[in-house]
Amino acid sequence: MRNRDLSFWLFLAPVILALVLVVFVPLLYGTIYSFTDWDGIKTSQFVGLDHYITLFQDSEFLNALQFTTLFSIASILLINAFGLSLALIVTSKLKSRNVLRTIFFMPNLIGGLILGFIWQFIFIKVFSSIGTLFGIPFLNGWLSTTETGFWGLVILMTWQLSGYVMVIYIAYLQGIPNELIEAAEIDGASPFQKFWRVKFPLIAPAFTVSLFLTLSNSFKLYDQNLALTDGGPYNSTQMLAMDIVKTAFTDNNMAYAQAKAVIFFIIVAIFSLSQVYFNKKREVDL
């Protein structure tokens, strides 16, 4: 037993070491630097909570926080709605369900920057051409306003992650015992009743996992934001990750950017862990 325990920790040691060196040590150092006037090279003095007081009075940071929160809410709802719908389609009796799984999952394989440039072309060139051809003013000038930029990012994120979330829902849908479905059919349950009364409660763990992943990915979005809108117009579609990067590498204010990153980490951790806690309480054991 002792040898097995030793071998277990030996196999686990490289992963733990990598986690400590790549995540926990930088987090610790970054938190310490956020209380100083660190410029990326050297630190001259301790400034205490000055950066944290300043950032809560920083309108650009607060606007980025508000935009990111609204974007995350819209993205989480749409991604999970579409992901679950796609999972129900490809777990039905369609002959093309295996082909459809591949097609629906493929957008997730495209890199964020490339994806952003693809959708930028669609929103600007394709939408404008369609709007001009059919006389639809709404399609002209997409990404030129805050509202269209917001929904452009939501559409991009939904298109990319719906297939990924679909795979998670498929795993749980296929794990539902056939006996429960057959019993519901014998009792005369309609397709909607079978889904809402039988399937939906049993895939609650899938919601926990999917909501956690979509929430964290939505809050941390950077490359798609950079490629699609670059924060424009006038930084009105700038998300928190982009605001932090610009503060650090454009304004060369490393310590202030690190303070923003610490607050960013706390916000994501609170939202993510809270939803996991509340969703876990609603899960149903088979």
Automatic annotation (TrEMBL):
<feature type="transmembrane region" description="Helical">
    <location>
        <begin position="103"/>
        <end position="130"/>
    </location>
</feature>
<dbReference type="InterPro" id="IPR000515">
    <property type="entry name" value="MetI-like"/>
</dbReference>
<dbReference type="GO" id="GO:0005886">
    <property type="term" value="C:plasma membrane"/>
</dbReference>
<protein>
    <submittedName>
        <fullName>Raffinose/stachyose/melibiose transport system permease protein</fullName>
    </submittedName>
</protein>
<feature type="transmembrane region" description="Helical">
    <location>
        <begin position="150"/>
        <end position="172"/>
    </location>
</feature>
<feature type="transmembrane region" description="Helical">
    <location>
        <begin position="7"/>
        <end position="29"/>
    </location>
</feature>
<keyword id="KW-0812">Transmembrane</keyword>
<comment type="similarity">
    <text>Belongs to the binding-protein-dependent transport system permease family.</text>
</comment>
<dbReference type="InterPro" id="IPR035906">
    <property type="entry name" value="MetI-like_sf"/>
</dbReference>
<feature type="domain" description="ABC transmembrane type-1">
    <location>
        <begin position="65"/>
        <end position="275"/>
    </location>
</feature>
<feature type="transmembrane region" description="Helical">
    <location>
        <begin position="261"/>
        <end position="278"/>
    </location>
</feature>
<keyword id="KW-0813">Transport</keyword>
<dbReference type="GO" id="GO:0055085">
    <property type="term" value="P:transmembrane transport"/>
</dbReference>
<dbReference type="Pfam" id="PF00528">
    <property type="entry name" value="BPD_transp_1"/>
</dbReference>
<keyword id="KW-1133">Transmembrane helix</keyword>
<keyword id="KW-0472">Membrane</keyword>
<feature type="transmembrane region" description="Helical">
    <location>
        <begin position="200"/>
        <end position="219"/>
    </location>
</feature>
<keyword id="KW-1003">Cell membrane</keyword>
<feature type="transmembrane region" description="Helical">
    <location>
        <begin position="70"/>
        <end position="91"/>
    </location>
</feature>
<dbReference type="InterPro" id="IPR051393">
    <property type="entry name" value="ABC_transporter_permease"/>
</dbReference>
